[in-house]
Amino acid sequence: MKLGVNSVLFGGHDMATAFKYVKACGYDGIEVSAINSMSEHVVLERWQETAAEARKLADQHDLPILAMEQPSQDPDTMQRGFEAAAVMGCPVINCGPGGKTGDEESFKTSIDALNQLSEMAAQYNVTLCAKAHVGQGVHDTPTSVRLLQAVNHPNFGLDMDPSHIHRADENPVEAIAAVVDRIRHVHIRDCKGRQQGPGDPEMQSNGRGDIDLLGYLRVLHQSGYAGPVDLEIIGAKEYELPLCVMIAAESRGHMQACLQACGAR
Question: pTM of this prediction?
Fold first, then answer.
């Protein structure tokens, strides 16, 4: 497994700062944020400029771009995302599942969109991923299974996020078995409680919440997963840089210890 950080953790700082400190914390790579409301890193409205900058930073810091997060299913936005991914050498784009929990019509609309976007992903040799997300059409393991059955495309996979599965009142460790053969990316963070949001950024740091992340990583390892595991901490846009670095470093230490404990490193 390759450990990375979604640059959204450093959303209040520029992309160069994110690359510098993700590398300093000892991560294997980085996931670049293209979430305009949370960062100004890869900005798809000017993707040529920002994707080229990201590629330059990746080379400068010897920090591979493991993935990009771009939440929209809009075809034009995603087209720019795929073009940016090609420039950056980015193998995975994570987008939102769309829809609304319990709304079958919106679920079907999202399935249609993801099937079309998967065809587009194939043209760029990129893997498109979506994850179960609190409040959206795909929100737990059963709906994740439905998603994977409905979007059975080689360029589509699951982005597995234990914090959303935990908040769906499931055990993330036990949930992996039903979907492990289609997991192509992992977003990871901790969570205290099962409320709708994941909590304050520092409480999303791995090891501070209720999720058995050691057990989670152990099952991933035993199942043969060898892809990206990217820390995704949201809500830190107003945080000063030392706090962002603290969260990244603390979480990396926890993940490294987990991987060593389960024989993955």
Answer: 0.96
**Token pair recorded at residue 2:** 């390759």
d(Cα 85, Cα 94) in Å, to the nearest integer? 11
Question: Would you call 90 helix, strand, or coil by DSSP?
Answer: coil
| Paired tokens of 34 | 């293209």
Is 114 in contact with 148 (CB distance < 8 Å)? Answer: no
**Rounded CA separation 41/7 (Å):** 8
How does pLDDT run across 181-211, given as a tens digit for each residue? 999 999 999 999 877 678 899 999 999 999 9
Give yes or no for a contact between 185 and 157, defined as CB atoms under 8 angstroms apart: yes
Q: Helices then strands (H, E): number in the chain?
A: 9, 8
Domains, the chain, in order of start with CATH, read 2-261 (3.20.20.150)
- Taking alpha carbons only, the member of 228, 247, 227, 229 closest to residue 237 is 247
